[in-house]
Design a protein that fits this description.
mainly alpha, Growth Hormone, Chain: A, single chain, transport
């Protein structure tokens, strides 16, 4: 009877491989969302933000101001990496990775409904910069945390392969953001795109976030992290 029970249990190698696959898939899904949101901002900054949020200056200065707000995200990436890394070591990688997706998704969706300068004046660019800072903070925690969880969970001889999903997610996020913006711009007139069309890709982020959270909910902490807690 004991031998029957033992034979029906998943062996340790199978459980470890399952954990590794879930970690790799969760890291990939989160990377897609975070980089979709992060890069979508840059695409839209070049097309829309100079007119919607900086109309009080010349077109050239408005474009420079829009790209300056894009750069804010890069300034906050190191801070996000340090803080999320610190709490990831204490509270767990999974918790922090769930939080990065939430933060990125909420910030991106809020950009999608943010009133323009003509509606709320200087509050528009101020809020835009704030939301961009949150995006940068979130993606800073995402990159290192997702790669680390994938490496810690992967089999010893396949760590590079299982952690590659983070980098692949970057490419997929870039393709999704550019593809969706291109599709909407082709389906709308210039006036429609500037009025409301550009907001659709930002709001679509909600769908991606929910999907990524569902995938990441199935992840487990790595065995290495669990051992460190004991």
């Amino acid at each position: 009877m004991d031998s029957t029970l033992i034979s029906t249990r998943p062996d340790e190698g199978t459980l470890s491989l399952s954990r590794a696959r879930r970690a790799a898939l969760g890291s990939f899904a989160g990377a897609v969302v975070d980089w979709y949101d992060f890069l979508l901002y840059g695409i839209t900054a070049a097309l829309v933000f100079n007119r919607e949020f900086f109309p009080q200056v010349s077109p050239a200065m408005g474009t420079l101001a829009a790209f300056a707000t894009f750069g804010v995200g890069f300034l906050f990436r190191p801070l996000g990496g340090v803080i999320f890394g610190h709490f990831g070591d204490r509270l767990g990688r999974k918790r922090m990775l769930m939080l990065t997706v939430w933060m990125m998704g909420i910030a991106t969706a809020l950009i999608g409904i943010l009133p323009s300068f003509s509606t709320i004046g200087w509050w528009a660019p101020i809020l835009l910069v704030t939301l961009r800072a949150i995006q940068g903070f979130a993606v800073g925690g995402e990159w290192g945390g997702a790669a680390l969880l994938s490496v810690e969970s992967a089999p010893k001889n396949k760590k590079a392969f299982y952690s590659s999903g983070v980098q692949v997610g970057y490419g997929v996020g870039l393709l999704l953001s550019t593809g969706l913006v291109s599709l909407i711009s082709m389906m709308t007139t210039d006036e429609q795109f500037l009025s409301w069309g550009w907001r659709i890709p930002f709001l679509f982020s909600i769908v991606l976030v929910l999907g990524a959270l569902w995938v990441r909910n199935g992840m487990e902490e790595s065995a290495e992290f669990e051992q460190q807690q004991h």
